[in-house]
Amino acid sequence: MEHTPVIELFSIGTELILGQIQDTNAHWIAQQTLQLGGQLRRVTMLRDEFDEMIEAIEDSIRRKTELILTTGGLGPTPDDMTVEVVAKIIGKQPIVHEETLTSFIKRRQLTSRDDVNPAMVKMATVPETAEVFQNPVGWAPCISVTTDESTILMMPGPPREMKGIFETHIVPLIAERYSAKTATLRVYVSMFESEVSPILQQVMGKYPNVYLKAYVALRRADGQYMPVDLVSTGADDEDARGQLQGAVDCFRQLVTEKGKILSLEDE
């Protein structure tokens, strides 16, 4: 396959690190990215700590990550500092985005800018030169900046708002940039993890664009069958499905040679 541009995701929020809130955003974004043909290389959780955020995002830029996604840190509280961090990284000043502020005034049915509170001003502040996409279900917008070879897309943290922005603004961008297609299948094997692991490696060696993962924790209660997922990536749907079928056939043959069973259903 040709080079597939990579994506990295940063989930920002000290509450995530402390375990107070589960990072469901990352799980959902990973699923959506795979379906769209994108290649998610890394997912990182960060505290609301200015220097740590700068170091992590700058490292991603140095890795030549084509698309950097962030969630969180766009709200009105003092610990929401994603805009300031990214502005510092790209060498621009944070400025009030007047179109966003005007949208806030209209949606809040305020009479003038004098009625705008500091929280609204903060959520309408973006790095200078940023491209701004309005939030279809909330307040803090999606903010896009480009530096070196990386595009940084900042999304708010609340899952409903993140999903609204992702589906409205991020999906078309990923679909445009990433042409790879995926095909997935779950099969079940009558083997233990230690038995099946060498076989998984053999299949992936022969089909490098197919990823196989066994789930020990999801083994059937009687211990007979363990699920294994196969995820194939191809240049198009036909390519992805063809590689997946080849990997399944290879996997089945190797399992059968061991006197074991591979099934498409949890028998």
List its salient traits:
267 residues; alpha/beta; Molybdenum Cofactor Biosythetic Enzyme, Chain A; Alpha-Beta Plaits; 2 domains; 6-stranded mixed sheet; 4-stranded antiparallel sheet; 9 helices; 12 strands
Structure explained in plain terms:
The chain is an alpha/beta fold and 267 residues long. It folds into 2 domains: 6-177, MoaB/Mog-like domain (Molybdenum Cofactor Biosythetic Enzyme, Chain A, 3-Layer(aba) Sandwich), CATH 3.40.980.10; 181-263, EIF_2_alpha (Alpha-Beta Plaits, 2-Layer Sandwich), CATH 3.30.70.1130. It is built from 9 helices and 12 strands. β7 (142-147) and β8 (150-155) form a beta hairpin.
Overall strand count: 12
CATH class of the largest domain: Alpha Beta
Largest sheet: spatial strand order: 2-1-3-8-7-6
Q: Quick one: biggest sheet?
A: 6 strands, mixed
Determine the number of helices (DSSP H or I, runs of at least 4 residues).
9
CATH topology of the largest domain: Molybdenum Cofactor Biosythetic Enzyme, Chain A
Give Rg in angstroms: 22 Å
Oligomer: single chain
Please state the overall shape, judged from the principal axes of the Cα atoms: elongated
Helical amount: 40-55%
**How do the SSEs run, as a string of H and E?**
EHHEHEHEHHEEEEHEHEEHE
Low-confidence stretches: none
Strand content: 15-25%
Second-tier CATH architecture of the largest domain: 3-Layer(aba) Sandwich
Average pLDDT score:
91
- Total individual domains: 2
Fourth-level CATH superfamily of the largest domain? MoaB/Mog-like domain
N-to-C span:
36 Å
